[in-house]
Every structure is written in C-alpha cells, then in structure tokens.
Task: inverse folding
C-alpha cells in the first residue's frame, strides 16, 4: 500500500480522543489501588445508571437489527442513543483508569470534556452482518483475533497503570507515552464494540491509533 493510498483512505468512522492533563491529583491517583477505590466510590451513581442503560441498549440493539434487516439502515434515534450510551461508558472508563481527574458528566451528549467520542452514522448497513442474533454471533467470531489481542493489551494496561500511579505521586503527571498507550487500548476496544453492535460495518483496524 502506497503513501498516497494511505493518505486517501477515509478515517475510521469511530474516533476516540482523550486529552492528557498536565497535572493530576495525587489523592485520586494514589498507588496500590487507593486512588482507584476512591474513584470507584465516586462513580457509584454512574455505575447504577449505566446498569439500566445497558439493559436499554440491549433492547435498542435488537430493535435496530430488525430495522436494518428491512431497511438497511440503523434508525437515527436508536443510533444516537447507542452512541450516547457508548460515550457515557467511555467517559467512565477514562476516569476509572486515571486518564483525567474531571468527573464524568451525566450526559450522553458530547460535552466540553477531556474525552471526545465521535461515530459517523452509516448510510447503509449489511443485512447479513447485522441479521438479528445471527449477525451478533458472526461479528463476535470475526473479531476473535481482536479479542485475543485486547486480552493481552488489557493485562498490559494494569501494569502501566500501576507504574503511572507512582509517577503521578512523585511528579503530579501521567507519563505521556503510558497515557497514549492506555488511550489506544480504549480506542481499540471501543472500535471493536462499535463493530459488533452494528454502529459500523467497517472491520476495525489492528491499531492503537
């Protein structure tokens, strides 16, 4: 593949960006799980809401696959709901893994926030790849290579976060390379989930960027 081809290739329709803060709290990033425990307690309202949103998102996805079967399109209202649910999840992910100290907003919409998630609404979707139930199983099988790689990447994230918390304790800052890595794993995982749940039919790239 030439440089010109790479430059002309359209951006992947699911984009996740997270700004790295210059300084972070030593308390809520304290090592040995102390900061994570504090954040978990603070996130209880979000986790309770996301539990019910997860149930609703499952229903939305099932209805959407039936709509795609007949029309070839993901209904805009249902699409926006699932994207909003995914964004809320991502905001909580970024906070719980110490990528920023800003408390997540109680909103499905994009806010002035360190995390930005954008998903392009597809004009058409494959009826086969998104066939009710069968499509989910098919995409789950197709993404097995991703799931295997992500398993190891997530294990690496735990190691990186262990080191990063000590770095924040002594310097007040999350090391830039480590921050990029954790963001990249979150980006990779978000793209795979978006593919499985019919937000796009473009196969996810094997990439952290």
Result:
């Amino acid at each position: 593949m030439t440089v010109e081809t790479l430059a002309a290739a359209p951006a992947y329709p699911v984009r996740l960006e997270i700004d790295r803060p210059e300084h972070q709290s030593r308390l809520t990033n304290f090592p040995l799980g102390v900061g994570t425990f504090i954040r978990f307690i603070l996130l209880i309202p979000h986790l309770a809401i996301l539990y019910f949103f997860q149930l609703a998102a499952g229903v939305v996805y099932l209805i959407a696959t039936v709509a795609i079967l007949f029309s070839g399109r993901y209904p805009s209202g249902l699409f926006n709901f699932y994207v909003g649910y995914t964004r809320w999840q991502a905001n909580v992910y970024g906070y719980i893994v110490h990528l920023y100290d800003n408390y997540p907003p109680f909103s499905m919409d994009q806010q002035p926030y360190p995390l930005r998630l954008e998903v392009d609404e597809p004009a058409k979707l494959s009826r086969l790849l998104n066939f009710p139930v069968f499509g989910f199983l098919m995409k789950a099988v197709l993404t097995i290579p991703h799931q295997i790689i992500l398993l190891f990447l997530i294990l690496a994230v735990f190691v990186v976060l262990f080191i990063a918390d000590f770095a924040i304790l002594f310097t007040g800052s999350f090391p830039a390379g480590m921050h990029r890595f954790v963001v990249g794993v979150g980006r990779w995982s978000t793209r795979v989930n978006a593919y499985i749940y019919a937000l796009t039919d473009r196969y996810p790239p094997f990439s952290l960027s």
